[in-house]
């Protein structure tokens, strides 16, 4: 009877240890949650300290809309062109760039829309008469409060947070992050002389290249020789290049980006509080899988001198359509967009339907001469956009240096569209690993050649392919002047200018049939997706995004490691118990003498606490 009693008590022990394992797991979970909460507080405090390196913006009460944790938020990013100039007078504070970013977890895309600085509006400066002039004058006349209130009155959009960076700090930020690989769409050149017009000097060569502070500032701030819409698109193009290059590296460089962020931007006071930072972080976490969508502001380009302020105009219907697209725009079906583009070039008569014409014999002859200077096969398009016929095509061959210092032969041909400030580029390089080629959204096959497609919304921005170990691509104009079908048709008609693979100069052009594979892009992981978001604000709000990613990654990693250790300890303890039970004989009344083993039982006085049995 006594033996059975002891045997019964011994057999219950693994169950009690199982409960202890579960209790241990619960303790680990609670400890991990506490550690994650502590880490969040530390990161928020670090970011607050970084933001306090610069003075807060004078926003005023009631100007910005309140925001809640994880809810939709609209950010206004302002580029302040206050700097010493090459002209006779310094530039007063004014908003050269006004970029709205809408982060709504309930929508399929993060929207990004620039409001033209030359948009004609009526501004009501405090204590002064109303004036009808360019929108960017609001920042000069009344700072952020007047600018935000004017944007809300004109568009109906409420702003939750404001971030301002002046152009000198922008140049510094680009240098400190390590420069950005981006596409310069054409040749930019202007030098002030005593007899010339006095405005910003610029000297940039065309093509995909590494832009550091001075070159990046020239590119995004240049405001001559094109339209307001092209200028805004140029700014967005550079920011998207920064997103593509640095978005995925935020997790490994959080300290660096926090320091750059704190030293180069000013924010509204609410964004420097713990609640403000956490609310935005919650929104970004809920939007981790969303891509960025560019929205073009609808406006009318009027001839210079047509309005007293040399403004661009927009009707209320155009403004409302832009706002609706910004707030409620639907995600484009990329496979359908690709299929639609292909359908426009399937017919043998496709060239007659598209505004494309064959390039001239003189152009092909110049291309053959340029081919002799390249160490790889030079490919050139056999068709071009009809609006640019008769205008010169600029060619440049050069070297791109990758981050590891290796040099890669590259060329670019710049084709005009005939529209003011609109150029598309044909390029080739031996650097197949360039950031430009990361994460294509779709692919199509034309004439046994596979093309990778990169979209900006539903518009094709880049079409790339690889031939004989060399990467080639066509880059759309800054405002996507070429349609998807035209982009694919030009890519399909781009071929070597010499060698056995070359098309003859007198070939009869005919667009071939195409097939669109049913390929759904893989869902982005949390790190990659959040990186895509962070890249858009890389130069402005990188650290905020990094906080969310770091908290999720480190919290889960620590929790997983602790759970693994706890379960491993439980397994070892259970195995030891089984070995101890197996080594005892069934009729044994107690453990062997001297082994130190203790049997726990319920005590009438101690209840579940148990008492040590005497050793036998």
Provide a quick synopsis of the model:
This protein is of the alpha+beta class and 616 residues long.
Keywords:
eight-stranded antiparallel beta sheet; 15 helices; about 20% strand; six-stranded mixed beta sheet; about 625 residues; Aminopeptidase; 3 domains; disordered C terminus; alpha+beta
Structural notes for this entry:
This protein has 616 residues and is an alpha+beta fold. It has 3 domains: 2-37 and 561-591 and 598-612, no CATH class; 44-331 and 537-557, Aminopeptidase; 334-515, no CATH class. The protein has 15 helices and 26 strands. The strands form 8 sheets. It has an 8-stranded antiparallel sheet, with helices on one face. The protein has a 6-stranded mixed sheet with strand order 11-6-1-2-3-12, sandwiched between helices. Strands 4-5 form a two-stranded antiparallel sheet. Helix 4 (167-177) packs across helix 5. Residues 6-14, 29-39, 507-551 and 592-616 have low confidence and may be disordered.
């Amino acid at each position: 009877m006594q033996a059975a009693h002891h045997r019964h008590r011994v057999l219950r022990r693994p169950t009690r240890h199982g409960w202890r394992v579960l209790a241990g797991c619960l303790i680990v979970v609670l400890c991990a949650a506490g550690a994650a909460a502590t880490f969040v507080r530390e990161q928020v405090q670090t970011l607050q300290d970084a933001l306090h390196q610069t003075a807060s913006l004078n926003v005023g009460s009631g100007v910005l809309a309140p925001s809640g944790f994880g809810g939709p938020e609209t950010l206004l990013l302002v580029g302040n062109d206050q700097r010493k100039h090459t002209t006779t007078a310094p530039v007063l504070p004014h908003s050269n760039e006004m970029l709205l970013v809408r982060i709504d977890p309930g929508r399929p895309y993060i929207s990004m829309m620039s409001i033209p600085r030359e948009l004609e509006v009526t501004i009501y400066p405090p204590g002064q008469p109303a004036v009808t002039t360019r929108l960017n004058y609001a920042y000069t006349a009344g700072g952020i409060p007047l600018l935000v209130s004017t944007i809300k009155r004109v568009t109906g959009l409420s702003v939750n947070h404001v971030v301002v960076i002046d152009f000198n700090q922008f140049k510094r930020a680009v240098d400190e992050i390590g420069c950005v690989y981006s596409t310069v769409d054409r040749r930019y050149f202007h030098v002030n002389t005593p007899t010339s017009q006095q405005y910003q000097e610029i000297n940039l060569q065309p093509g995909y290249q590494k832009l550091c502070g001075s070159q990046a500032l020239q590119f995004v701030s240049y405001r001559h020789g094109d339209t307001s819409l092209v200028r805004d698109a140029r700014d967005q193009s550079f920011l998207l290049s920064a997103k593509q290059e640095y978005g995925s590296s935020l997790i490994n460089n959080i300290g660096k980006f926090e320091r750059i962020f704190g030293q180069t931007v000013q924010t509204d006071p609410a964004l420097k509080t713990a609640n403000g930072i956490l609310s935005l972080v919650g929104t970004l976490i809920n939007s981790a899988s969303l891509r960025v969508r560019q929205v073009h502001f609808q406006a009318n380009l009027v001839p210079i001198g047509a309005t007293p302020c040399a403004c661009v105009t927009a009707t209320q219907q155009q403004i409302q359509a832009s706002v609706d697209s910004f707030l409620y725009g639907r995600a484009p079906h990329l496979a359908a967009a690709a299929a639609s583009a292909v359908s426009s070039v399937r017919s043998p008569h496709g060239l007659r339907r598209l505004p494309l014409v064959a390039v001239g014999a003189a152009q092909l002859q110049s291309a053959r001469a340029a081919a002799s200077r390249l160490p790889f096969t030079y490919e050139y398009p056999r068709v071009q956009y009809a609006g640019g016929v008769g205008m010169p095509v600029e060619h440049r061959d050069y070297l791109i240096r990758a981050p590891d210092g290796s040099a890669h032969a590259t060329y670019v041909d710049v084709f005009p569209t005939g529209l003011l400030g609109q150029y598309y580029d044909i390029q080739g390089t031996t650097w197949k690993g360039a950031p430009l080629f990361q994460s294509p959204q779709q692919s199509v096959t034309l004439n046994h050649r596979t093309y990778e497609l990169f979209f900006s919304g539903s518009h094709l921005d880049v079409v790339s392919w690889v031939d004989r170990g060399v990467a080639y691509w066509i880059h759309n104009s800054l405002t996507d002047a070429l349609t998807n079908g035209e982009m694919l048709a030009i890519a399909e008609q781009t071929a070597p200018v010499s060698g056995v693979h070359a098309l003859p100069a007198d070939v009869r052009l005919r667009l071939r049939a195409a097939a669109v594979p049913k390929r759904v892009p893989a869902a982005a992981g949390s790190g990659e997706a959040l990186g895509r978001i962070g890249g858009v604000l890389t130069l402005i709000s990188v650290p905020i995004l990094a906080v969310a990613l770091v908290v999720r990654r480190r919290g889960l990693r620590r929790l997983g490691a602790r759970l693994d250790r706890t379960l491993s300890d439980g397994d070892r303890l259970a195995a030891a118990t089984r070995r101890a039970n197996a080594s005892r004989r069934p009729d044994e009344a107690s453990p062997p003498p001297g082994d130190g083993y203790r049997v726990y039982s319920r005590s009438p006085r101690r209840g579940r606490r148990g008492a040590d049995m005497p050793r036998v």
